[in-house]
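Hi R.,

Here are the chain sequences for the assembly we discussed:
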Amino acid sequence: MKPETLHFFDRVYEVVKQIPSGKVTNYGAIARYLGAAKSARIVGYAMNASHNMDDVPAHRVVNRNGLLTGKFHFDGTNLMQQLLENEGVEVKNNQVKNLKDYYWDPNEELNLHDTI
DNA sequence: GGAGTGACAGTTG
DNA sequence: GCAACTGCCACTC
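And here is the predicted structure of the full complex:
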């Protein structure tokens, strides 16, 4: 499979699936990791479709403010928050506390020359 | 084939 | 320092 052939969507899934438990990241980091920092919106859109896949922990992806913007997309309840808290991430009012502490940057933790 | 939408980010006033 | 606007790429209708 050629990465070039893969759509932004597919790559986003691979990155999100590699997010370690107890860690969270933001759309910009993923988009930048894919080489399209300005396309953070696409990442969000990808999450919209990825939320249908159980293999993609979309709950670990939050916006720049650490706000669980996609919470409503999970099931309309605080499921997303519960999942994060279950992993050790402190969430308050649909927002990740100490985001900096739980922040996980694919550009720093992962290498572009991975299986992806 | 064209226009509109979208779980954002970065920049400017 | 805070608030608001634009840009951006992919997907759906």
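Residues 18 and 110 of chain A are 9 Å apart (CA to CA). The first helix of chain A runs from residue 8 to 17.

Let me know if anything looks off.

Best,
T.
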